[in-house]
Specification:
The chain is α+β, with helices and mostly antiparallel strands. It is built from four helices and five strands, in the order H-H-E-E-H-E-E-H-E. The protein is elongated.
Length: 123
């Protein structure tokens, strides 16, 4: 009976185990998703008051003021990217439609013009 009890406890413990790194990654992703949702809501609320572009991700200044001819590289630079790694993906949302691109496009010298109200997500 003790052996069966010990096996049952071991099985329950093993089934619920997760590594600290995977738990931390899930927590970080949930936190960033919440932050992104808040930023997107704030951006939607403030579009009429202050036109510009919103950068979602690890930046110091998520709201970039609009200037004529603003490009993606200029917006990311103005937002002051503070991530520890280079972003791998960039998602631009304009009028409810999103376009995803590999971030290496910027390193190749390709720059993309932005429009007032665009939301740029760095992943």
């Amino acid at each position: 009976m003790r052996v069966l009890f010990a096996i049952l406890i071991f099985a329950l413990a093993a089934a619920g185990c997760t590594s600290r790194s995977s738990a931390r990654l899930r927590e970080q992703n949930a936190y960033l998703a919440g932050q992104n949702a808040i930023l997107l809501q704030r951006q939607a609320d403030s579009d009429a008051a202050s036109p510009g572009v919103t950068i979602v991700g690890p930046v110091q200044h998520p709201k970039v003021p609009w200037v004529t001819g603003l490009t993606l590289a200029q917006a990311i630079t103005t937002a002051n990217y503070v991530g520890t790694d280079q972003p791998k993906q960039i998602i631009i949302t304009r009028n409810g439609e999103s376009a995803t691109m590999d971030a290496s496009v910027l390193l190749d010298g390709t720059d993309i013009p932005l429009q007032v109200g665009d939301v740029v997500e760095l992943r």
